[in-house]
Design goal:
By secondary structure, this protein is mostly helical. The protein has one domain. Helix content is about 65%, strand content about 0%. It has five helices and no strands. It is elongated, with a radius of gyration of 13 Å.
């Protein structure tokens, strides 16, 4: 996230978007693993998470909102939302 924030400060939105995509894909991998499922590719992964027992509330809606924020020029808000999703996912991991 630190690299994404630095790139945001430099106005490199393309890099920020790439960081967001990779982070969301990684969150999907974690959530698939937590639910004992295999993730074959990123296509449809965000929507599939909504059917899992262990997931952040409104996962796909939150992902859609962070991309909407990014597209509307609110990249900092998108990164904030992503950090929230990361925290919610971390709290699901068994200790």
């Amino acid at each position: 996230m630190a690299n994404a924030r630095k790139s945001l400060d430099r106005g490199d939105i393309s890099y920020v978007a790439g960081c967001i995509f990779r982070a969301v894909a990684s969150l999907c991998q974690v959530l698939f693993a937590l639910n004992g499922r295999w993730l074959l590719n990123e296509k449809g992964a965000v929507a599939a998470v909504d059917g899992f027992a262990l997931k952040p509330a409104d996962f796909s809606r939150s992902v859609a909102r962070l991309y909407a924020d990014l597209g509307a020029g609110r990249a900092a808000a998108a990164l904030d939302r992503l950090e929230t999703l990361i925290g919610e996912t971390e709290r699901l991991w068994p200790n």
